[in-house]
Amino acid sequence: MNNNRKYSNGTITVVWQPAECIHAGVCFRSLRRVFDPVRRPWIDLSAAETEEIIDIVERCPSQALTFFWNDPERTIAGKKHSHKLFDTAHLGRLFSAPAAEQKIGGTPPVSAGETTVLFREGQPLTISGNFRIINWTGKEIGESGLNRRAVFCRCGRSANQPFCDGSHIESGFRK
Question: In sequence order, what are the residues at sequence separation of 6 or more whose Cβ sits closer than 8 angstroms to the Cβ of residue 172?
């Protein structure tokens, strides 16, 4: 089942892709009146100004939250070319295809036995597929199995090493 959602305030539409979420909590810790995981629907764009919402979407460490302009001719200065702009050419793929057939983050879906490592400049490292994570004592950490996903810190500032907690946003990490 496809769990992707769109939320609009008339100026922008926020696209939420829960399969991409790493639960860093940047959104709800920073702007709880808009992003409230207890409320349904959990996103209410009427609770803040558009620029404030875009600022939080831009701080999301994954591609779980992105946005697009409802009218590309009516944008906010400095936000027209945000790195979190959603390519609306992918709307049909995200909101009509079964989740198993979708491509997430512009990469092909992982098939049995395949592991994919996604590198994006200034972002954490995302690994999808069938893999295990072993710590320095030899103990397996996290979950293992086919079609799992882990998002690893690249900036070195996460309090939840080796996983990303969104700290790269405040640190200015851009490599």
Answer: none
User: Is residue 62 within 8 Å of residue 151, measured between CB atoms?
Assistant: yes
Contacts of 30 (CB under 8 A, 6+ apart): 56, 59
CA distance 1 to 115: 22
Distance CA 5, CA 41 (A): 10
- The total of other beta-carbon atoms located within 10 Å of residue 156's CB is 10
pLDDT digits (tens, 9 = 90+) for 50-102: 999 999 999 998 889 999 999 988 888 888 888 788 888 878 877 764 444 43
Query: How many Å apart are CA 95 and CA 7, to the nearest integer?
Result: 13
Distances (CA, A) of 49 to 46, 52, 54, 62, 133: 8, 5, 9, 22, 41
* Strand, coil or helix: 3: coil
pTM as predicted: 0.61
